[in-house]
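REQUEST FORM: STRUCTURE PREDICTION
Request ID: SP-0412
Submitted by: Lab K.M.
Chain count: 1
Length (residues): 190
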Amino acid sequence: MFQRLTYLFDQLKGKNKSTTRELELLSAKFPLCHISEDAFVISHRFIDLGPKTKINRGVQLIAYGKNEFFTEGKITVGENCLISNDTKLFAGRGKIVIGNNAEVGMNCFISAQRRVLSRAENSEEHAMEVFDTIIGDECLMGSGVIIVEGSEIGKGCVIAAGAVISGIYGDNLFFAGNPARAIPKKNMNG
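STATUS: Completed
RESULT:
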């Protein structure tokens, strides 16, 4: 009885033997990284982490393998990066690339796949669109940032807490708002 309750509790927390094994394999694959034992990993084979990268508690790294319709998903995080608590990187079958020396705040969501519902009458079909979502080197994100699938953010950008980014942007910008507005950093002091 106790084992069954423990199993159900682990399922509710999102942890089971297969995801725990994925986390162990990811940690073994990248010994120079610090990966919290409370992180959640799906498909460690499609995740690459640079040296000295830190994955904090509650982070979810999700990438799926390929099938006859889609290519394999991929998450690549550069070296010396920080992915803070409870952030979700959902590549699905798309690609997420985070450059070197980037910091992602708590409770952020970065996506590379979107599910599209069919508008046809009586249709229950679902289609997926996959994208490349790219975050440049030395970017800094506050808490609660959402990066919409297919977005590209250049090097050295700063994103305020709660901003929602959608689109392709250059280097050295400051983002704030929902939807986020880009301001060159050189114009911020007046």
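NOTES: The helical segments are 2-13, 17-29.
Reviewed by: T.R.
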